[in-house]
Specification:
One of its GO terms (biological process) is methylation. By secondary structure, this protein is α/β, with parallel strands linked by helices. It is built from 8 helices and 7 strands. The site of S-adenosylmethionine has 19 residues, from helix 2 and strand 2.
Length: about 240
């Protein structure tokens, strides 16, 4: 049995992790049935990501995707000239993503790891993207999360993310960080509004923070207005 004594910060984090759902098993099971009606199972990129590209805010370089799932955004970036490292802790999603990359003749460096265990070279990336991973990160890991981004990004680089907004149709718990531990659950994902995102990412310059734009079933991009899309620049 693991020794239940807190000697350092990582022991403390592990204790708090143990009060919440273990993510790796959950996300590995999540992708076992690819036919489930899950909005982000369709292989189309986020509309905001496409808009950053079309509007010339982002120019191809080196990208890191956190929690890439079956890879729809990593594929879009690779198709548009980016060199992409894409990380997820679920083997089932990475297998699916790799199959999609092969079908499309694309090379993406998929990495099976927890984002908190990544070895990242300082300032190695022009762009870090996260679609739907951040809202599943427990509050006690939030500072480590922003440290990962800060380490990964070069000066002038961008971080883009989509998250549940508070009380959204698909998730977005409106609970305090303390309540997460009283309940022993993130309630399916935390909700973040513009003010909260600006505060969490206050060391960056906000470029655009808005709701995603809803898309219908026939669209070649993904968008749900119950999600926030935020882009920040590292100064
Ligand atoms: C809602 S899914 C989104 C998947 C993908 N970004 C998309 O939009 O299609 C969140 C993903 O984050 C991954 N994830 C959650 N916590 C993670 C962590 N600590 N490290 C790596 N991946 C993580 C999950 O395995 C899951 O694939």
């Amino acid at each position: 049995m693991m020794e239940e004594t807190v000697y350092n910060q990582e022991d403390l984090f592990k204790m708090l992790d143990s009060l919440l759902r273990e993510p790796e098993g959950f996300w590995t099971d999540f992708y076992k049935d690819r036919d489930r009606d899950i909005p982000f199972f369709k292989n189309v990129p986020d509309e905001n990501l496409v808009s950053y590209h079309i509007n010339g805010i982002l120019k191809p370089g080196k990208a890191l995707e956190l929690g890439c799932g079956p890879g729809r955004n990593a594929l879009y970036l690779a198709k548009n000239g980016w060199e992409v490292d894409a990380v997820d802790l679920s083997t089932t999603s990475l297998q699916w993503a790799e199959e999609r990359a092969v079908e499309n003749g694309l090379h993406i460096n998929f990495i099976h790891n927890n984002i908190f265990n990544l070895e990242i070279a300082e300032g190695a990336y022009d762009f870090v993207y996260d679609s739907g991973c951040f809202h599943h990160i427990a509050p006690h890991r939030r500072l480590s999360y922003t440290n990962v981004i800060n380490k990964a990004l070069k000066t002038g680089g961008h971080i883009g993310l989509t998250t549940f907004c508070p009380g959204g149709k698909f998730g977005g718990a409106v609970i305090s960080d303390w309540e997460v531990y009283r309940l022993g659950s993130l309630q399916g994902g935390l909700g973040y509004d513009k003010a909260r995102l600006e505060r969490i990412f206050s060391c960056y310059e906000p470029v655009e923070i808005r709701n995603m734009i809803d898309q219908d079933n026939t669209s070649e991009v993904f968008g749900l207005s119950d999600l926030m899309a935020a882009l920040f620049k590292k100064l």
